């Protein structure tokens, strides 16, 4: 009966009629029953073996007494082996093994053995037994026919797996299945004896359960896939203990998708309760559900790079973007009625070369539901395969097949159901480009066939290419353009496959190339696990006479019951030149006799891709060996194609352990992909009362996740152990581009260090020095060592640095290589290993270098580090913070308090912020109070001295941009320091050099005189203004007014000083949207004229020009009439071209503000010249007039400006117009006393303005009121006044420009 819910009415279960034929009384309790071909073998407790025909007749053969069967260690010892010497011996459990032709038995005293008939006659004289000496506690047995293994469960809780030696007939221990403390710590008193062992129907896994409960699943050669003990013996969150699931009997379902279990939940000790919960304690039938890797049944998938798992009605895969839309977690919560258990992929699947990100993106699966129409008549799924690109999947059920596209999300089934029901796929299926290649049995013709279907055409035999086959095909695989099949008559056949387009239909044709009979080497065809063609051979292409043959199908790899056998082509005969004959007519070379490469092999991976750079990885052969981990058969290449040494073998087999079960190998990426199964405790706190929920809890709750692991470090280490350092270097250099290559080196160093440094006995030949020397070959050497040290405990550091070198030398190497972050890591190691004086000395070195290179984060950490050393905290290294901490320096606070963050809306700003304008006075107190928690004044002084020295250097080298970054990032009190240094470091020694340097640093273009300015003087003057105003209204620059420069918020400032990041759109947007509101907020208090310390005194100039206020209303009405012609646009663009980037403008104005505050007027003049704004020069004059200014500084300014004038005349005529504008101010410097006269000289210019000239400013006025988001009432009436003031100031700023330009052009 089919176990699917959808079966149709006419397909219901057949009527079964059971009747009794005969009763046989064997006069003793029956211990075990086994069916042997036509006979039934019965073991009874009186030590007899009965052989009974199925007809129910004993045939007169008498029962065999076990005491008469001779037993020995192997079949070679004298035929008369010792007999079982005691009377009451009988068989407790036995199982027949067809491929070994004998019985695995467990006796009642715990001994185990294997009984085999010497000849075909089954009588006492013809039986002979072998036994291993060391097993005395056997409890049960299970046999794997495909791999010829016998698994004996023991009372100790482990399972011993034996095989029979072909030559001697002795029982050899293959491996043990035992839980170690590493997998489950408290194992010894938990499991009890092994109760049941069962191999799956596909012989790829074995399931084990113990007396006290728990389930575990193991691969053929002992890799643990699932163990439920973690969940079974856990405590729930309310402190109660979970009852483990005890299993009395179990059996696998079809294809291994189900495990049927009869359970007994410890009912022996339950009292009778009236509570309905007691019902749960009765034994019941449970059903566990599994998913398995495609490679268990269809090993041709091993040349793929995807992992594909198949369940009874769905597929799990991990391939590319097309399919990654939804990935439900494959957990046991799939089915409501019974929790399901998932089977870890037992064999292998693969990933694809679409790129690592898609293959490793996350831990979940892409689940494809198999078409229910196909499943209805063809359950269960037997084979599945995915194509190279991971976009199409084909599945095979009982009859026929179907395929699915991950791109279109559609299934394609046979249109004609009789065609589907007429074929049974026997040997698996594989993709070749767009074709599906499969081996099948044609029921109506009674014929074995090889068929090729095109994916894109309809699924119909009319479009298939069919080739008849002489015998049943058991295995099929595709390599490049060849198909290799293994048949039931033990022959291997090679076919060529090629695409043919005849007319409208595209088909593929198949032709036989070569047949090889293997019957001499293979005892039974069922024992062959997989067969593949590879380009791997014992010779690597260099030694071949014709190198291109290295990429041909060189050899056949055959997995015979776990033994990997290789047959290479025989090249000893005469070689035929390829060009002489057409490839199809070329006679293929015969194969040499087979060679055994490895034992206990579960899976094999090779690739047919070639890559010159990564030959080691692509020409290697990868083996999965179960519990023994993995092996790689690696080619060894001589360096620079020198002639190889005759004594050097050309390949080497390297074993290594990995922590996951491998399902696919990514060759170039040096990764293994797999799946991992975790058992979680399903906690039932929420539904404590329902009986059904109690059942749920009894099940292990399992989650299958994708996983991956790097293996490169294992291989490099194995090569180094074998003194193959040159090969290791070649291999590593081919992989340096991998993103995790630094991690590989670190892992290798870490593992060797842990092993050797913690070893109890002295190591005769330590590997660490070799590994250290190997890592020095790579530029990542310094990082690798320090990362490894930081991740290992302090006790091992001395051992590590004895091998890699003194940390002081490594620190200095980092500094020389300019790798400051790594140097900082070494500093923490030095701090632990050396005295404080040494670490301070190195920290100072690093701090100075970091300052020099502008690594501000590092500088902040270094300041903390130096303080920590100074305050005696040298025992603990400072934790390296990840986030940037605001420093608590006074100078930083001084600016922070006066700013509103640009990202805040003004409503949230507390009212106190608006009155902070008065704090513009100098920061009080000596700089010794810089640090809030001041533990050690000398330390702070030491740090301050370094900071001052750096600031002095920056100023002397005219690096103003760096100085701004330095002050903003480290919270350096620039203003107070500049005040002190006003006459020393903060003097401008050479105005011309300073000017040039600023142009270069701030990317500010040198001014040029436009050619067209000579033709249209008036228009040029006018539109020059338009250009400037347009620029400003576009950016709505909040810093145009000097009064509000202090309003640069902390965030904005630190962003605008990060030189390496361009101004983002977002930054400009926030500036434009919040700009005006900042102006309102900061300008309102400035209406107070008496505020001396603000530079707001510049507004004095504009208070008399009330006529401008009147102008605005008039202009506003006819503003819309402004239109620009082509030539006028050119003027504007010329004007825009003479400005630097917006960010530079913000930075220059900020610096100007700082220098104003500090009274460094010579620097203010230089910045005024660069910005070419006469208002700045005016403002400086006002300051000079209103306060006492050092005569020396005045003299310096005067000589400097003269020098600039001379330079402009000779080298940079573009500056002359501006210098002409400020000529009156320059004269005023000489005659500083005539302030009043000079003020009056300003008046006529303002009065003579025409409305037309002012008009562009209306746009800005409109823009600023549109942008401001502060409700008018909130700031109060003063806001209107301040806005007018601001506009007036800007008007004032521009006037000299127009006037000057006009004059200049006329002259």
TrEMBL record:
<keyword id="KW-0677">Repeat</keyword>
<protein>
    <recommendedName>
        <fullName>Guanine nucleotide exchange factor subunit RIC1</fullName>
    </recommendedName>
</protein>
<keyword id="KW-0472">Membrane</keyword>
<dbReference type="GO" id="GO:0006886">
    <property type="term" value="P:intracellular protein transport"/>
</dbReference>
<dbReference type="GO" id="GO:0000139">
    <property type="term" value="C:Golgi membrane"/>
</dbReference>
<dbReference type="InterPro" id="IPR011044">
    <property type="entry name" value="Quino_amine_DH_bsu"/>
</dbReference>
<comment type="function">
    <text>The RIC1-RGP1 complex acts as a guanine nucleotide exchange factor (GEF), which activates RAB6A by exchanging bound GDP for free GTP, and may thereby be required for efficient fusion of endosome-derived vesicles with the Golgi compartment. The RIC1-RGP1 complex participates in the recycling of mannose-6-phosphate receptors. Required for phosphorylation and localization of GJA1. Is a regulator of procollagen transport and secretion, and is required for correct cartilage morphogenesis and development of the craniofacial skeleton.</text>
</comment>
<keyword id="KW-0344">Guanine-nucleotide releasing factor</keyword>
<dbReference type="InterPro" id="IPR015943">
    <property type="entry name" value="WD40/YVTN_repeat-like_dom_sf"/>
</dbReference>
<feature type="region of interest" description="Disordered">
    <location>
        <begin position="323"/>
        <end position="349"/>
    </location>
</feature>
<dbReference type="GO" id="GO:0034066">
    <property type="term" value="C:Ric1-Rgp1 guanyl-nucleotide exchange factor complex"/>
</dbReference>
<comment type="subunit">
    <text>Forms a complex with RGP1; the interaction enhances RAB6A GTPase activity. Interacts (via central domain) with RGP1. Interacts with RAB6A; the interaction is direct with a preference for RAB6A-GDP. Interacts (via C-terminus domain) with RAB33B; the interaction is direct with a preference for RAB33B-GTP. Interacts with GJA1.</text>
</comment>
<feature type="region of interest" description="Disordered">
    <location>
        <begin position="1242"/>
        <end position="1307"/>
    </location>
</feature>
<dbReference type="GO" id="GO:0005085">
    <property type="term" value="F:guanyl-nucleotide exchange factor activity"/>
</dbReference>
<comment type="similarity">
    <text>Belongs to the RIC1 family.</text>
</comment>
<dbReference type="GO" id="GO:0042147">
    <property type="term" value="P:retrograde transport, endosome to Golgi"/>
</dbReference>
<keyword id="KW-0597">Phosphoprotein</keyword>
<dbReference type="GO" id="GO:0005829">
    <property type="term" value="C:cytosol"/>
</dbReference>
<dbReference type="Pfam" id="PF25440">
    <property type="entry name" value="Beta-prop_RIC1_2nd"/>
</dbReference>
<feature type="compositionally biased region" description="Acidic residues">
    <location>
        <begin position="1288"/>
        <end position="1297"/>
    </location>
</feature>
<keyword id="KW-0853">WD repeat</keyword>
<dbReference type="InterPro" id="IPR009771">
    <property type="entry name" value="RIC1_C"/>
</dbReference>
<dbReference type="Pfam" id="PF07064">
    <property type="entry name" value="RIC1"/>
</dbReference>
<keyword id="KW-0963">Cytoplasm</keyword>
<feature type="domain" description="RIC1 C-terminal alpha solenoid region">
    <location>
        <begin position="713"/>
        <end position="871"/>
    </location>
</feature>
<dbReference type="InterPro" id="IPR040096">
    <property type="entry name" value="Ric1"/>
</dbReference>
């Amino acid at each position: 009966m089919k176990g699917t819910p959808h079966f149709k009415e006419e397909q219901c279960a057949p009527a079964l009629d059971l009747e009794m034929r005969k009763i046989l009384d064997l006069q003793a309790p029956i211990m075990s029953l086994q069916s042997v071909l036509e006979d039934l073998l019965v073991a009874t407790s009186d030590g007899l073996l009965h052989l009974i025909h199925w007809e129910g007749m004993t045939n007169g053969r008498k029962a065999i007494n076990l005491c008469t069967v001779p037993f020995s260690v192997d079949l070679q010892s004298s035929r008369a082996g010792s007999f079982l010497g005691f009377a009451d011996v009988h068989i407790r459990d036995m199982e027949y093994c067809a491929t070994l032709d004998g019985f695995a038995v467990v006796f009642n005293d715990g001994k185990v053995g294997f009984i085999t008939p010497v000849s075909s006659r089954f009588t006492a004289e013809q039986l002979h037994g072998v036994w291993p000496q060391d097993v005395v506690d056997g409890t049960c047995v299970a046999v794997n026919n495909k791999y010829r293994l016998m698994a004996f469960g023991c009372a100790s809780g482990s399972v011993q797996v034996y095989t029979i030696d072909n030559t001697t007939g002795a029982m050899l221990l293959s491996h043990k299945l035992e839980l170690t403390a590493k997998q489950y710590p408290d194992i010894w008193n938990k499991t009890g004896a092994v109760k049941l062992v069962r191999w799956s129907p596909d012989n790829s896994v074995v399931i084990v359960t113990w007396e006290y409960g728990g389930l575990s699943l193991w691969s053929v050669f002992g890799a643990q896939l699932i163990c439920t003990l973690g969940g079974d013996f856990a405590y729930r969150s309310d402190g109660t203990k979970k009852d483990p699931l005890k299993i009395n009997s179990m059996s696998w379902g079809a294809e291994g998708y189900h495990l049927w279990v009869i359970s007994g939940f410890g009912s022996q000790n339950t009292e009778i309760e009236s509570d309905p919960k007691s019902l749960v304690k009765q034994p019941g039938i449970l059903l566990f559900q599994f998913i398995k890797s495609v490679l268990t049944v269809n090993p041709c998938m091993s040349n793929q790079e995807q992992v594909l798992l198949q369940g009874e009605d769905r597929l799990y895969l991990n391939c590319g973007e097309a399919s990654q839309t939804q990935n439900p977690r494959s957990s046991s919560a799939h089915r409501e009625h019974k929790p399901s258990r998932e089977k870890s992929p037992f064999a292998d699947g693969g990933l694809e070369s679409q790129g690592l990100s898609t293959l490793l993106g996350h831990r979940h699966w892409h689940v494809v539901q198999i078409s229910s129409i196909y499943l209805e008549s063809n359950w269960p799924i037997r084979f599945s395969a995915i194509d190279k690109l991971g976009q199409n999947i084909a599945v095979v059920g009982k009859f026929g097949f179907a395929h699915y596209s991950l791109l279109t999300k559609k299934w394609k089934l046979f249109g004609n159901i009789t065609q589907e029901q007429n074929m049974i796929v026997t040997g698996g299926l594989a993709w070749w480009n767009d074709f599906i290649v499969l081996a099948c049995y044609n029921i109506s013709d009674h014929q074995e066939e090889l068929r090729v279907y095109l994916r894109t055409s309809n699924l119909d035999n009319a479009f298939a290419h069919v080739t008849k086959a002489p015998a049943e095909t058991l295995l099929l695989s595709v390599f490049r353009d060849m198909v290799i099949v293994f048949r039931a008559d033990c022959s291997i056949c090679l076919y060529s496959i090629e695409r043919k387009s005849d007319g409208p239909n595209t088909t593929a044709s198949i032709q036989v190339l070569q047949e090889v009979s293997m019957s001499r080497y293979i005892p039974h065809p069922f024992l062959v696990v997989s067969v593949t063609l590879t380009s791997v051979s014992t010779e690597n292409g260099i030694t071949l006479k014709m190198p291109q043959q290295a990429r041909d199908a060189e050899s056949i790899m055959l997995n015979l019951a776990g033994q990997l056998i290789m047959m290479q082509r025989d090249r000893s005969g005469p070689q035929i030149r390829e060009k002489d004959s057409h490839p199809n007519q070329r006679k293929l070379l015969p194969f040499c006799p087979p060679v055994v490469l490895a034992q206990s092999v579960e899976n094999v991976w090779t690739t047919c891709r070639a890559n010159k750079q990564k030959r080691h990885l692509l020409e290697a052969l990868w083996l999965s060996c179960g519990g023994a981990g993995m092996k790689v058969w690696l080619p060894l290449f001589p360096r620079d194609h020198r002639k190889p040494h005759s004594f050097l073998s050309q390949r080497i087999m390297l074993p290594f352990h990995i922590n996951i079960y491998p399902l696919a190998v990514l060759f170039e990426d040096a990764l293994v992909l797999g799946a991992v199964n975790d058992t979680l405790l399903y906690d039932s706190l929420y539904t404590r009362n329902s009986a059904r929920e109690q059942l749920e809890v009894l099940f292990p709750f399992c989650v299958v996740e994708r996983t991956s692991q790097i293996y490169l470090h294992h291989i490099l280490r194995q090569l180094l152990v074998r003194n193959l350092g040159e090969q290791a270097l070649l291999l590593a250099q081919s992989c340096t581009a991998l993103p995790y290559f630094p991690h590989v080196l670190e892992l290798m160093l870490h593992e060797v260090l842990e092993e050797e440094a913690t070893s109890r006995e002295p190591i005769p030949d330590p590997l660490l020095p070799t590994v250290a020397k190997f890592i020095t070959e790579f530029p990542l050497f310094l990082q690798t060592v320090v990362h490894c040290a930081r991740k290992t405990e302090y006790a091992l550091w001395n051992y590590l640095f004895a091998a890699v070198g003194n940390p002081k030398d490594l620190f200095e190497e980092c500094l020389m290589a300019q790798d400051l972050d790594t140097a900082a890591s070494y500093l923490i190691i030095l701090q632990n290993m050396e005295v404080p004086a040494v670490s301070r000395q190195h920290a100072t070195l690093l701090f100075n270098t970091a300052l020099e290179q502008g690594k501000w984060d590092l500088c902040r950490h270094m300041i903390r580090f130096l303080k920590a050393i100074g305050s005696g905290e040298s025992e603990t290294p400072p934790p390296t913070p990840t986030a940037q901490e605001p420093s608590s320096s006074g100078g930083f606070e001084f600016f922070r308090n006066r700013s509103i963050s640009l990202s805040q809306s003004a409503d949230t700003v507390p009212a106190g912020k608006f009155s902070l304008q008065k704090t513009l006075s100098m920061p009080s107190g000596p700089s010794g109070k810089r640090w809030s928690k001041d533990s050690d004044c000398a330390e702070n002084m030491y740090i301050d001295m370094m900071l001052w020295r750096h600031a002095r250097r920056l100023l002397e080298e005219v690096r103003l941009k760096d100085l701004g970054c330095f002050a903003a990032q480290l919270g350096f009190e620039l203003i107070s320091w500049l005040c002190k240094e006003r006459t020393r470091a903060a003097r401008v020694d050479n105005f011309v050099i300073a000017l040039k340097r600023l142009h270069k640093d701030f990317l500010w273009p040198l001014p040029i005189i436009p050619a067209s300015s000579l033709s249209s003087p008036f228009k040029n003057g006018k539109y020059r203004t338009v250009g400037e105003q347009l620029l400003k209204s576009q950016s709505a620059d909040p810093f145009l007014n000097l009064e509000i420069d202090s309003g640069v918020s902390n965030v904005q400032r630190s962003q605008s000083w990060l030189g390496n990041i361009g101004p983002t759109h977002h930054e400009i947007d926030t500036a434009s949207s919040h700009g005006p509101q900042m102006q309102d907020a900061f300008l309102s208090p400035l209406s107070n004229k008496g505020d001396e310390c603000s530079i707001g005194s510049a507004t004095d100039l504009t208070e008399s020009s009330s006529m401008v206020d009147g102008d605005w209303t008039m202009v506003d009405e006819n503003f819309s009439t402004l239109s620009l012609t082509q030539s006028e646009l050119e003027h504007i663009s010329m004007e825009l071209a003479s400005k630097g980037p917006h960010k530079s403008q913000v930075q220059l104005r900020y610096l100007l503000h700082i220098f104003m505050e500090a009274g460094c007027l010579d620097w203010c003049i230089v910045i005024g010249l660069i910005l070419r704004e006469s208002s700045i020069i005016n403002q400086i004059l006002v300051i000079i007039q209103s306060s006492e200014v050092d005569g020396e500084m005045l003299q310096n300014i005067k000589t400097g400006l003269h020098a600039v004038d001379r330079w402009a005349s000779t080298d940079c005529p573009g500056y002359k117009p501006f210098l002409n504008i400020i000529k009156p101010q320059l004269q005023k410097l000489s005659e500083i006393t005539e302030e009043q006269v000079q003020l009056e000289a300003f008046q006529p210019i303002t009065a003579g303005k025409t409305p037309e000239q002012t008009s562009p400013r209306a746009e800005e006025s409109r823009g600023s009121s549109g942008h401001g988001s502060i409700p008018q009432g909130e700031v109060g009436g003063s806001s209107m006044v301040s806005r007018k003031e601001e506009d007036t100031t800007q008007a004032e700023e521009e006037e000299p420009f127009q006037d000057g330009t006009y004059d200049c052009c006329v002259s």
